[in-house]
User: What shape does this take?
Amino acid sequence: MSQAEEPETVIDVSGLDSNKLLRRLRDQESAKSDAISRIRLTNSGPSVELIHGVGAFLRSNLLLECEFDLGDFVFFAGTMADVRVAGDVGKSCAHSIASGSLLVRGNAGAYLAAFATGGYVAVLGKAGDRCGLGNSGAEMVVRGDVGDDAACGMSDGVLVLGRGAGKNLGLGMTGGLILIRGQAESIAPDVKKVRLKDADNLKTSLLLARAGIKATGVEFTGYRPVGGVK
Assistant: This one.
């Protein structure tokens, strides 16, 4: 039986800074319930400075939806929560997450999901440099192109790139799988092209479908570390 959802809670961020919003979210998280908490962030003001750290350190089964652009460190070191952003996000979003998910319908800055150990991250726009830096278990999808040094130091997990990458793709990579459609400006010598199995193609298709992207795994080229699984 699926878990019930609580009625939606709407928080208007107009007049709230990052610290005040963080406290509001912590208060909501501490109201323990067996149901899934659902929170929607809105902005009734004419404009708003980018709020940083939205969803940072969340540790509960919570659905957090945001209707506008956010700053850096969205869902930083988070666990379990499902965070969805209709606009763009800044740097280091989903950094160090262990589980849960982040869906960004716009673009993301540098260090997307850096040092993540698990969870799912999808960006429907572009992502900046060092996407997936040090990833050791997260499953990542970026529909647009990404900057330089994607998957740098990656040791596990999956990085799916829908429109190519910048320089040094896979630099220092020791584990995991890169799947790319399009071209990278340069491929690091640490990785090699591999033949994908049917299971790889199926998993890629499922990761894309979860983000609402209509594509299949057979459209992608796979790369693994030199000396890794063929």
